[in-house]
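INFO  loader      accepted 1 record
INFO  loader      residues=140
INFO  predictor   begin
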Amino acid sequence: MTIHAERPSVLFVCVHNAGRSQMAAAFLTHLAGGRVQVRSAGSAPADTVNPAVVEAMSESGIDIAAEVPKVLTADAVRSSDVVITMGCGDSCPVFPGKRYLDWRLSDPAGQGIAAVRPIRDEIEQRVRGLLDEIAPSGQA
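INFO  predictor   done
INFO  writer      dumping tokens
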């Protein structure tokens, strides 16, 4: 499905907005080069981003150390073209006309860097596929 918005908007949602959704948002921001508006949020945000996630992303050349978990709002969902949930369950509001995807991924919470790396790599591959779909590099 190609989104026909001038600049499509994607919202990544997980429970704590401290791991999976932060990694996905960082990869999409990095890879899209401004072609996509990117947000992330959590249904019950943590106080800080998971340090192992920050380290894993740093290994990929992406610095998310300054990111802060954000609370999921209905406005964030309403203003997004694509909403990707990663284990937020029924707490994600649903609005007609939005595209919803549920990415089933392991939760990096409480995991060390060795366990976070394969999650990071899977998220990167999924984000690359999503970007090819919603904002192919041939589009301005």
